[in-house]
Structure prediction request, 511 residues.
Amino acid sequence: MNRDGACTSIWQTHNNEALISGRPQAGIVYDVIVVGAGITGVTTALLLQHAGKSCILVDAANAGFGTTGGTTAHLNTFYDTSYQMMIDNFGEESARLIAQGARSAIGLIKSNISTYNIECDFEEKDGYLFSLTEKQNEELDEIVSAASKLEVAIEFSTKNPFPIPHLKVARVPGQAQFHPLKYLTGLLLAFQEAGGTLVENCRVTGIKEGEVLEVQSSLGVIRARNSIYATHIPPGVNVLHFRNAPYRSYVLGVKLKDDEYPAALGYDMDDPYHYYRTQEIEGQRYLIAGGEDHKTGHEENTEESFRRLESYVRTYFRVEEISFRWSSQYYEPTDGLPYIGILPGHGSNVYVATGFSGNGMIYGTLAGLILSNLLVNGKSIYEKLLSPGRIKPMAGFSNFVKEGADVVKHLVKSVFPAEQLHELSALANGEAQVVKFEGNIMGLYKDDSGELHAVNSSCPHIKCSVGWNNAEKSWDCPCHGSRFSFDGKLLTAPAVTDLQKVDLTEPKTGN
Ligand SMILES: Cc1cc2nc3c(=O)[nH]c(=O)nc-3n(C[C@H](O)[C@H](O)[C@H](O)COP(=O)(O)OP(=O)(O)OC[C@H]3O[C@@H](n4cnc5c(N)ncnc54)[C@H](O)[C@@H]3O)c2cc1C
Prediction:
């Protein structure tokens, strides 16, 4: 499977050739179009198809192309937003509901695996949270005490299966892990078996609203009564882009010399935190270790983020080989809870699910339950709490637009002299830079063969200037997280079009 970056995740060795991508049927009005075939879209589409709704599931690239192909697939009963924060911000009953949501999501994953016989390396494990400082001790005390109020099992422990010096440890029973792309493929096969249509390489660019929606896509207009944006962040311009901040996180897949692979899921309490687990791929075990998160587009040297993570891992584990390394994106919601329901500013038949932090295996699955209930039964117990229309800005939610992020204009010229740009940028092969040339700002990338590629660095979403991500070889927007390949092809929403390519005249050669 392809993914939205140049690095290869540990999951991408999975072969999903059994999946057949179809075409939208002309003349059909589908009950539901689900846009985006990650865990959210696929879970939702399967539930709806089984509930008797005719569904078409489209993806701009391929199933698993987004963060579902770059996750680490820990299945947790606790979240990045602590239960104490949920109690403080939303009240104890709401926090209890979200705790129940995690149990329901893991329950649905287990029942899908058994109903559809999905071989996806699912294993139940304990999780361990460990503090490294006195301040983190206090936070851990708070986590354990809030969890006990909500009857979420978390207890202090004397052992930590992770070889990392720590002060206090809490054990969280009933966690799990799986291979996300094997699971996704299993759900998709069940969806197709139930009569659902999967269409890959079909980008949705807009919706003309009405009782029957006319969904504009790269394969023409698709007509449906309801639409669900399961695109991780909705495409186009929406208030939700100002209530979710895009972040990137870094992951290594590591072979160990001593075979001391941890048999549990683990998390330290740094900010950003490190996370661990073990995964076997084709008979070989790997330690998966992640962390070094930062706001998208706010670090130019993303190679450095990998180096820091590697150095951290080498400090505590006996590394034989770094076999995989990749990074991926997630969205941090303003008030700590996801947005699942009707897309603000749209009719009551356009839905969305976004703002999952690092918990989208759980929230994406829960979104499937919520959205299918809303569409089939007209209600959900989570409807009010997770409404995308809620207004609950939180103090302390830092402005996610990079300070001084440039809003740049369209290029005034369409063709530029390659020779001068080569000189101006002085790039080595594999390097990139945003340059200013005669009042125009553009992104230049010199590929490994020395060829220069130029793009207008103005993000087509709302015109912030993109920056280079040297590890994933992509242009990333610091404002709302749209990402583009080195030559401007759109990788991730909210933008719906490519970066404008800039034509370069070749230097005159010879006499
Ligand atoms: C490094 C990392 C580790 C993580 N680890 C965990 C973890 O251990 N546990 C956990 O619970 N969560 C984890 N998460 C979060 C979780 O992986 C994500 O929240 C989840 O995968 C999001 O799934 P999704 O289906 O909503 O979006 P995605 O998987 O991103 O899928 C969205 C799909 O929509 C498609 N799309 C976008 N725009 C369009 C369009 N206009 N038209 C058509 N298709 C479109 C894309 O191609 C993509 O395939 C992690 C995240 C990161 C970054």
Summary: The two ends are 48 Å apart (CA to CA). The chain has eight helices and 26 strands.
